[in-house]
TrEMBL record:
PROSITE patterns xrefs: WD_REPEATS_2 (PS50082), WD_REPEATS_REGION (PS50294)
Biased composition (Low complexity): 93-113
Gene3D superfamilies assigned: YVTN repeat-like/Quinoprotein amine dehydrogenase
Cross-referenced Pfam families: WD40
Positions of region (Disordered): 88-137, 190-210
Cellular component, GO annotation: cell division site; cell tip; nucleus
Naturally occurring in which organism (per UniProt): Umbelopsis vinacea
Any GO BP annotation: carbon catabolite repression of transcription
This protein's UniProt keywords: Repeat, WD repeat
Protein name: WD40 repeat-like protein
C-alpha cells in the first residue's frame, strides 16, 4: 500500500519548489570584464585583398558566459524548388490559421528531406566532396563511414572545389552477430548510416513549445518565421550560436536582423553544438547541443522538437567540451567531457544510467598491450550492462581504455562507446577527411591520433608548453594544426609522424585554428588562428618555404619517436598483441622550423573564441557573444 503524504510532506514539497523557483530566477552568468573601448575594426588587409565587416551579431539583452564564449554552426540547404514550394507553400497557407509560428512549422513538414546537398561551403572543417543534383544517392553513399577491412566497391570519386585530392569512402559491414569481441565501430554503426535507401531520417518527438521540463525555460520564435522559411533559397545560410543560457538561430547575413528562434535554458549553459550535414533538408535539421551540466540536447529547429541525452548528467555530469556528428552517420555523434573522456552516442537511444568507473582490471597489463576480452582466462569488468573491451598501454600518454555496452543490450542504450583518454580535460577533437581518424587535444598538452573506426590509439605528440586548446586537419589530411597555451600554432605531418613547424605571432593563448580550404592548393596551404589576444592571424604554409633551423636536422622517420611498452602479458591464451601506440617527445624550439604570419589584425574588442572559413565570408566569434561576418575580397 502506497504511503499517503502528510501535511508536513506537502509543506516540504512546497518549500522545495519555492526554493527551486528562487534559484531559477536568480541564476545569472558570472561577471565579465569590460570590452576594449578603443577597438573599432571594420576591415583587415591580407595579401589577396581587403576583408570588410559585412555583418555583426550582438544582442545586449543576451548576458554572455565569459568563461565559455560563443561558437557557431553554419549550414546551407540545397532546395529543389518544386518540392520546396509544395512543402513550404502548405506551411504558408496554414500560418494564417494559427498564432503559433513554431506549431505551424511542425505541422507542415511535407517537403522532401532528401533535398539537401553536400556543398563545399557548408562545413566548418575540411569540405566534403562536391555534390551535383543528378547524384543525390551517390552523395549519400560517399558519406558512409570508412571500414578498412570490409571494403565494398567505392562510389565514383568526386573532386572537391578546392582542388585538393579527392577522397574515397567505403561502407561498413558486420553487426551484432560478429565474432570479433573487439567489436569496432563497424559493429556499432550498423543501421546508422545512409546508403541511398531513401528512408527519411527520424526526428525528435518532444515539443519544446509545450514542454513543462525544468531544463528549458522558454523558446521565442520569430512572428514571421513561416514567411521567412518560404522565401529562403539555396544561397541562404543558417547560423546557430550560443550566448550565456541562450541558443540562437539566425540568418548569417542578417536578413532579418532578428533571431529566427531563441531557446533559453534554465540553470545550464550551452557550451558546444553541431549540425548534421548528412540529414539536413528543407523540413529537417539535426542539431546537437552540449551543456555545462553534461546534458546533451537533440533539437530540430524547423519543428521545434527535441530529445534529451545524458539527462541530468546521469552518465557523465562534467561539462561537454566538444561535440560533433560522426562523418557519414545519421544517428551517431561524439562528445568530449571535462573529465577527460570521449563518448559516442546515438541520438535515438535511451540513457542506461551511471557509467562504470575505472577499475583495477588494468593492473598487471603491460604497457603497449591491447587486451581483448574474448579470452576465457580474462574476465571483463561488468557493471550496469557494460563491459570493458580493451586497454591500450598503462603509460599515461599512451593510455586509451574503451568500454561499451554488453552485446545483448548494445542496441538499446547510450553511450555506444566510452573512451577514457586522459586524466585532464579534453578540449577539442577533429575528424580526418578520410573518416578514419580523430585528432584529440586537451589540457595535458597532448595531441592524440586515434583510429576511431577500430578504436585504437596510434600516436601521441607532446606540446612545447601547457595545454592544447584546438585542433584542425588540412583538407587533404596530410597536416594537423594545434593551438594552445604556449601561444603557438603547431603544424604536424600526419603521414610522416613528425612536427613540421611552429608558428609564432600570438601574444596569448590560441583558441581556434582552421584551414581555409578555398585558398589551399597542392603547394600552399592557407590557415588562420584566433586567440585570447583578440587577434586574427593568417598563415601561408609550404614545406619548401619554411625557415630551417641551423642546428641538427630533425629526423623524418618513426625512429625519432619513442614507443613505451613493457614485457608482454603471459597466459592470456587467445589474447593478441598489436603494434603499440607511439609517443613522440617534444623537440626544443631551435630544432623546429618556424613560420611567419602573412597577416595579423586585432579584430575583436574581447578575446576571440571561434574561426570559420566559408566560400564567400570568414566568421569570427568572441567571449562576449559577438559574431562577426567578414566579406572576402572580390
Amino acid at each position: 500500500m502506497a504511503d499517503i503524504p502528510g501535511p508536513g510532506s506537502v509543506a516540504n514539497n512546497l518549500a522545495r519548489k519555492q526554493s527551486a523557483d528562487t534559484a531559477l530566477n536568480t541564476f545569472r552568468p558570472p561577471p565579465f570584464p569590460h570590452s576594449n573601448p578603443d577597438h573599432h575594426c571594420q576591415e583587415f588587409i591580407s595579401p589577396e585583398g581587403r576583408y570588410d565587416l559585412y555583418h555583426e551579431i550582438l544582442f545586449d539583452s543576451l548576458i554572455p558566459n565569459y568563461n565559455i564564449g560563443t561558437t557557431v554552426s553554419l549550414v546551407s540547404i540545397k532546395y529543389k524548388e518544386s518540392s520546396k514550394l509544395e512543402g513550404l507553400g502548405n506551411l504558408y497557407s496554414n500560418s494564417s490559421s494559427t498564432t503559433n509560428t513554431s506549431e505551424t512549422v511542425a505541422a507542415s513538414n511535407s517537403a522532401d528531406s532528401n533535398d539537401s546537398d553536400e556543398e563545399n561551403n557548408v562545413t566548418l572543417h575540411p569540405p566534403s566532396p562536391a555534390a551535383t543534383a543528378s547524384n543525390t544517392n551517390g552523395n549519400k553513399q560517399m558519406h558512409v563511414l570508412r571500414r578498412k577491412f570490409s571494403l565494398q566497391a567505392a562510389a565514383a570519386s568526386q573532386e572537391s572545389s578546392n582542388s585538393m585530392p579527392s577522397r574515397q569512402m567505403t561502407s561498413i559491414e558486420g553487426g551484432v552477430g560478429s565474432n570479433n569481441a573487439t567489436s569496432t565501430l563497424s559493429f556499432l554503426t550498423r543501421g546508422h548510416t545512409l546508403s541511398g535507401n531513401g528512408k527519411a531520417p527520424r526526428k525528435p518527438k518532444t515539443s519544446i513549445t509545450k514542454s513543462n521540463s525544468s531544463f528549458v525555460q522558454r523558446i521565442i520564435t520569430n512572428d514571421q518565421l513561416a514567411k521567412i522559411l518560404i522565401a529562403r533559397t539555396s544561397d541562404d545560410t543558417n547560423l546557430f550560436y550560443n550566448c550565456g543560457t541562450s541558443f540562437v538561430w539566425m540568418d548569417a547575413t542578417g536578413h532579418p536582423k532578428e533571431p529566427l528562434s531563441r531557446i533559453i535554458f534554465a540553470r545550464s549553459y550551452p557550451t558546444v553544438h553541431d549540425v548534421n550535414m548528412l540529414t539536413r533538408g528543407s523540413d529537417h535539421l539535426d542539431v546537437i547541443i552540449g551543456f555545462s551540466t553534461g546534458d546533451i540536447l537533440w533539437f530540430d529547429p524547423l519543428c521545434n522538437k527535441y530529445g534529451r541525452i545524458n539527462k541530468g548528467g546521469v552518465i557523465n555530469s562534467s561539462a561537454v567540451t566538444a561535440i560533433k556528428w560522426l562523418p557519414g552517420s545519421e544517428n551517431l555523434f561524439m562528445a568530449s567531457f571535462h573529465d577527460g573522456c570521449c563518448m559516442i552516442f546515438d541520438k535515438e537511444r535511451e540513457d542506461l544510467g551511471a557509467f562504470p568507473l575505472d577499475s583495477s582490471t588494468t593492473n598487471g597489463i603491460g604497457a603497449g598491450t591491447t587486451l581483448v576480452f574474448n579470452n576465457p582466462l580474462a574476465k571483463p569488468h561488468v557493471s550496469s550492462g557494460f563491459h570493458q573491451v580493451k586497454i591500450e598501454s598503462l603509460h599515461e600518454d599512451l593510455y586509451l581504455k574503451v568500454t561499451k555496452p554488453h552485446v545483448r543490450g548494445a542496441h538499446k542504450c547510450n553511450p555506444v562507446s566510452h573512451w577514457s583518454v586522459s586524466k585532464n580535460s579534453i578540449l577539442a577533437f577533429a575528424f580526418s577527411p578520410d573518416f578514419q581518424h580523430v585528432a584529440v587535444v586537451g589540457l595535458d598538452g597532448r595531441l592524440r591520433i586515434i583510429d576511431y573506426i577500430d578504436e585504437k590509439l596510434l600516436d601521441t605528440y607532446q606540446t612545447y608548453y601547457g595545454g592544447l586548446t584546438c585542433v584542425a586537419w588540412s583538407p587533404d589530411g596530410r597536416y594537423i594544426l594545434t593551438g594552445g597555451q604556449d601561444d603557438l600554432v603547431t603544424i604536424w605531418a600526419f603521414r610522416e609522424q613528425r612536427i613540421v613547424a611552429r608558428c609564432q605571432g600570438h601574444s596569448s593563448w590560441v583558441t581556434s585554428v582552421s584551414f581555409d580550404s578555398y585558398r589551399c592548393d597542392e603547394n600552399v596551404y592557407r590557415f588562420g588562428s584566433v586567440g585570447e589576444d583578440a587577434k586574427l592571424i593568417l598563415w601561408d604554409f609550404s614545406v619548401s618555404a619554411l625557415h630551417r633551423p641551423k642546428t641538427q636536422k630533425q629526423s623524418r622517420h618513426r625512429g625519432a619517436s619513442v614507443s613505451s611498452f613493457s614485457n608482454p602479458v603471459q597466459g592470456l591464451g587467445s589474447g593478441y598483441y598489436e603494434k603499440p601506440p607511439t609517443l613522440h617527445p617534444v623537440l626544443e624550439k631551435n630544432r623546429v622550423a618556424f613560420l611567419q604570419p602573412v597577416m595579423v589584425q586585432t579584430i575583436h574588442a574581447d578575446p576571440c573564441v571561434g574561426l570559420y572559413f566559408r566560400e564567400d565570408v570568414v566568421v569570427t566569434t568572441d567571449r562576449r557573444g559577438r559574431v562577426a561576418v567578414w566579406k572576402r575580397p572580390p
